[in-house]
Design a protein that fits this description.
Number of helices: 4
Strand content: under 5%
Helix content: 40-55%
Number of domains: 1
Order of helices and strands: EHHEHH
Oligomer: single chain
Number of strands: 2
CATH superfamily: NADP-dependent oxidoreductase domain
CATH topology: TIM Barrel
Distance between the termini: 23 Å
Structural class: mainly alpha
């Protein structure tokens, strides 16, 4: 099982660190610290471009990527409302093609 395939919201289209409540745990998350946050924002932008090329969201891309991993049989995601649930299930029918997989791998290679 994979926990938090959306990286606590960091891998969603609308994530904005500055709009979080001051007490939100994500402000203290390692992904929120510079220089990692700058790199994450750049990567997220590139991944959003890949998703948009397929008329999909970054959320769908992240979930489709995680679920295609051979060692993963399921993903645990936090869902706050019915709209989020619907958005997340859209990824279940997305079978990433070889070109998309390669593009994602190239983006992920910059994460060290």
């Amino acid at each position: 099982m994979c926990w938090s395939p959306l990286a606590s919201g960091f891998l969603t289209d609308g994530f904005d660190l500055d709009s979080l409540e001051p007490q939100d745990f994500r402000r203290r998350h390692p992904y929120a610290q510079e220089t990692r946050y700058t790199l994450l924002r750049q990567m997220r932008g590139r991944l959003q471009d890949i998703a948009r090329d397929h008329q999909r969201s970054l959320t769908e891309l992240a979930i489709a990527w995680v679920l295609r991993q051979l060692a993963v049989t399921g993903a645990i995601m936090g869902i706050r409302d019915e709209g989020e649930a619907r958005a997340m299930t859209k990824a279940l029918d997305w079978k990433l093609d070889d070109e998309t997989i390669q593009a994602i791998k190239e983006v992920l290679a910059s994460w060290s």
